[in-house]
């Protein structure tokens, strides 16, 4: 579904921001991209959606090389939600905002209405279609931005810090969307600083450190290897630390922790 | 720390070129008076005079180490203006001294007029370039502050220079965000024109919200709360420079005023 | 603790809004307190922050009733310079906190003290001090607009500190930072002089635990819970609006399974959980 083959990229010739990046990801995976500010995460994101071209190597999205495909065509295959949703909102209504992508795809009439209604439902704003996107609070606006990309039904989703500033209800909505997308075979890539969120939702972690891929591991393997987390400048999720302290298998979520703890108790150890 | 803080920030959007020449060291107000004098001279001098002044300004630019940057801008701007003036005044406008030159009619008086306008514009532009390449806007602000010029005026000078980069950056961000949503910016001119609102609406909305934010940030940091601000690293001034400024201003006014009086 | 800021029965509605966003809110904050105001989305967190900091009322944006007073005087009676020296507000979006008047980081920090017409030596002393606290000395000559989001966030806090305010109001101060920079900033805030009152507004529970010792929950336009971390974060209304820390959620799982006494407070942080489960840090 996505192949990044030995990619190097530099803004200024001779000082690469990313070098030798090599990984692939397949349908239904949720992959987190982690690392310090300035490690090259945003640059990688822009290489994946075709906004940047690799200096060396290539990026293949859904069978298309980003070097040969215009960005607006790649958009049918890879949907991106950037950090600042305000930068993409231009319609006077939330409905119009969500309709923009599908309209570019040629969807119209009843099919379009149905698509919009479905997306509004998923982002938790079923009755707000006619409101102005700038009149709602910032977290709802972030979900509108997610919705405007979901409406295009791309097989790959890129989300840059989607969890930032969300309260419990909005977070649950976002997590449900990610789970639903995974279930329908979408490849989801998340750039994320919140390691609890990564632990809960990602199957796999790609870590960037100083422009190279310092780790490509399953989530539990990544977080249990202190050398890897330290190199990437990220913390171990608290629940996972606690489970290891107690001699339990590594637990990524509170639910997993409770289960592991109770299993051991019942087992009589 | 002191030497560190005296270093000026290099912004690619500024024409300012760091240096140690007499113009760089001059108080920004002195440079400003020099600019005003040159502008007024450019208005009143005949073609020979503006040509001489332009050449002198180019020579000074070369000596002060800003020649390359200034000349580049001068050429980029003046070449098209020169061509336009030649065509319009030499060839197109019907004059009494129209003479056939091959297939076209050409007018010597028209060319002469064109040259006079050309040299006047070149002189004014060169004077301005000399000023902006040797005067850092931050120093200009400090000099104005020091003279007790209202801070709002300084802000009007500084903020466009400072905000142009973040603004461009944001325009790029918006364009990227829309392209990855399938907006085609490579198509026909018609398609591109149709895409314009999609790019402009967020840009304008965000600029308006920025204005709002900036106003509260400025009052939060006591901007314009007191009649005077403290000036740190104030550009040095001297009695000599004060007299030079007075002289330049007097000359500028006389240059403009005398011909008027003469005609009366 | 002497009361410093008092919000009295504040009712505020944005023009054209159907309902008031702050609805009879009352609150007293004492000198030197470190307060976290937790709030779900759309609860009026930023609006309250702007009232606390005296940025509201502003023109047509007025309270329907009530007021905010600092040291017993209504904010509207303070002049701009007085207010700026008393309280500083750092908003959420780092690039929007910059003055747009300074060509270097040094000048950006000096901007406020210069506006107060302080003597040059005092301005320099304050700038140097703020640069040390916020780890900016190596960036002194950089153009503020070319800094990264995290660096700009540190810069806006430094610019606020250079005003030597008695109160610092921070709206989601760690949201733009990676985990390491976040921990650095928390450590730096921790080192600030004890007399400085700090009010942090947050939607995320974990960073606020490290920044405050008094917690308030803002919901439905009012303060609905006020107390220690244990009291507020275990309050059902807080759990409903903001969820639980991952540790508290894990411990709640144990409680529901009968492996943790139902009447005992749940640990909120890893350190608390380790202490109450009697385990050692397994990894060095």
Question: How would you explain this protein's 3D organization?
Answer:
Chain B: This is Energy-coupling factor transport system permease protein. Chain B: Keywords: Membrane, Transmembrane, Transmembrane helix. The complex is a heterotrimer of chains A (269), B (264) and C (284). With 269 residues, chain A is α/β, with parallel strands linked by helices. Chain A has two domains: 2-235, Rossmann fold (3-Layer(aba) Sandwich); 237-269, no CATH class. In chain A, 40% of the residues lie in helices and 21% in strands. Chain A is built from eleven helices and ten strands. Chain A has a six-stranded mixed sheet with strand order 6-7-8-3-9-10, with helices on both faces. In chain A, helix 3 (94-104) crosses helix 4 and helix 3 (94-104) packs parallel to helix 5. In chain A, 53% of the residues are buried. Chain B has 264 residues and is mostly helical. The radius of gyration of chain B is 24 Å and the shape is flat. Chain B starts with a helix and ends with a helix. Chain C is α/β, with parallel strands linked by helices and 284 residues long. Chain C has one domain: Rossmann fold. Chain C is built from eleven helices and ten strands. Chain C has a six-stranded mixed sheet, sandwiched between helices. A four-stranded antiparallel sheet of chain C has the order 2-1-4-5, covered by helices on one side. In chain C, helix 3 runs parallel beside helix 5. Chain C is globular, with a radius of gyration of 20 Å. At the B-C interface, helix 7, helix 8 and helix 9 of B face helix 2, helix 3 and helix 4 of C.
């Amino acid at each position: 579904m996505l192949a990044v083959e030995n990619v190097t990229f530099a803004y200024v010739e001779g000082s690469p921001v990313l070098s030798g990046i090599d990984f692939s990801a397949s349908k239904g995976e949720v992959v987190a991209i982690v690392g310090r500010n300035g490690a090259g995460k945003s640059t990688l994101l822009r290489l994946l959606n075709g906004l940047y071209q690799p200096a060396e190597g290539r990026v293949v999205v859904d069978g298309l090389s980003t070097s040969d495909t215009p960005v607006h065509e790649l958009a049918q295959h890879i949907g991106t939600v950037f950090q600042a949703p305000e930068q993409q909102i231009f319609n006077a209504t939330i409905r119009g905002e969500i309709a923009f992508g599908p309209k570019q795809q040629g969807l119209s009439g009843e099919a379009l209405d149905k698509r919009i209604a479905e997306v509004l439902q998923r982002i938790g704003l079923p009755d707000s279609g006619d409101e102005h996107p700038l009149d709602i609070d910032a977290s709802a606006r972030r979900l509108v931005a997610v919705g405007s990309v979901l409406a295009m039904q791309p097989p790959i989703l890129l989300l840059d810090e989607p969890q930032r500033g969300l309260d419990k209800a909005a977070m649950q909505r976002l997590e449900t969307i990610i789970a639903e997308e995974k279930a329908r075979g979408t490849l989801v890539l998340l750039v994320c600083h919140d390691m609890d969120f990564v632990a809960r939702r990602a199957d796999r972690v790609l870590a960037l450190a100083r422009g190279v891929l310092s780790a490509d591991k399953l989530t539990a393997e990544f977080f249990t290897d202190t050398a890897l987390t330290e190199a990437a400048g990220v913390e171990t999720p608290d629940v996972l630390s606690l489970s290891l302290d107690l001699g339990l298998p590594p637990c990524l979520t509170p639910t997993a922790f409770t289960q592991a703890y109770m299993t051991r108790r019942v087992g009589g150890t | 720390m002191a030497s560190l803080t005296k270093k000026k920030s290099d912004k690619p959007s500024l024409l300012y070129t760091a240096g140690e020449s007499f113009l760089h060291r001059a108080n920004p107000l002195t440079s400003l008076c020099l600019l005003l004098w040159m502008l007024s001279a450019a208005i009143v001098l005949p073609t020979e005079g503006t040509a001489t002044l332009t050449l002198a300004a180019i020579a000074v630019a070369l000596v002060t180490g800003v020649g390359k940057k200034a000349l580049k801008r001068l050429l980029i701007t003046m070449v098209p203006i020169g061509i336009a003036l030649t065509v319009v005044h030499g060839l197109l406008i019907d004059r009494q001294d129209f003479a056939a030159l091959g297939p076209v009619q050409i007018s010597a008086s028209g060319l002469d007029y064109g040259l006079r306008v050309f040299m006047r514009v070149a002189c004014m532009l060169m004077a301005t370039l000399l000023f902006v390449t040797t005067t850092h806007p931050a120093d200009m602000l400090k000099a104005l502050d020091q003279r007790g010029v209202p801070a709002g005026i300084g802000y009007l000078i500084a903020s466009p220079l400072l905000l142009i980069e973040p603004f461009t950056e944001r325009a790029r961000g918006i364009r990227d965000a829309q392209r990855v949503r399938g907006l085609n910016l490579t198509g026909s001119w018609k398609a591109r024109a149709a895409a314009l609102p999609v790019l402009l609406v967020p840009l304008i909305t965000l600029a308006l919200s920025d204005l709002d934010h900036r106003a509260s940030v400025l009052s939060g940091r006591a901007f314009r709360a007191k009649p005077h601000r403290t000036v740190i690293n104030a550009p040095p001034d001297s009695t000599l420079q004060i007299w030079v400024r007075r002289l330049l201003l007097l000359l500028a006014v006389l240059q403009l005023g005398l011909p008027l009086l003469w005609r009366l | 603790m002497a009361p410093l800021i008092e919000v009295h029965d504040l009712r505020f509605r944005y023009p054209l809004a159907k309902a008031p966003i702050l609805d009879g809110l009352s609150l007293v904050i004492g000198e030197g307190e470190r307060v976290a105001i937790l709030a779900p989305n759309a609860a009026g967190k930023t609006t309250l922050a702007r009232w606390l900091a005296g940025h509201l009322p502003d023109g047509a944006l007025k309270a329907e009733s009530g007021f905010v007073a600092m040291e017993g005087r209504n904010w509207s009676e303070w002049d701009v310079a007085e207010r700026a020296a008393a309280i500083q507000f750092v908003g959420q979006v780092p690039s929007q906190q910059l003055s747009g008047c300074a060509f270097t980081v040094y000048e950006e920090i000096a901007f406020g003290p210069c506006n107060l017409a302080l003597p040059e030596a005092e301005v320099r002393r304050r700038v140097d001090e703020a640069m040390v606290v916020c780890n900016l000395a190596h960036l002194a000559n950089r153009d503020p607009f070319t800094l990264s989001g995290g660096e700009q966030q540190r810069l806006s806090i430094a610019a606020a500190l250079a005003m030597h305010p008695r109160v610092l109001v921070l709206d989601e101060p760690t949201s733009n930072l990676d985990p390491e920079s976040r921990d650095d900033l928390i450590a730096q805030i921790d080192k600030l002089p004890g007399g400085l009152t700090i009010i942090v507004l947050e939607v995320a529970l974990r960073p606020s635990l490290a920044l405050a010792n008094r917690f308030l929950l803002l919901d439905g336009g009012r303060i609905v819970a006020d107390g220690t971390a244990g009291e507020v974060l275990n309050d059902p209304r807080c759990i409903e609006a903001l969820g639980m820390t991952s540790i508290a959620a894990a411990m709640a799982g144990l409680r529901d399974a009968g492996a943790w006494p139902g009447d005992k407070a749940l640990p909120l942080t890893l350190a608390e959980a380790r202490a109450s489960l009697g385990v050692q840090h397994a990894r060095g």
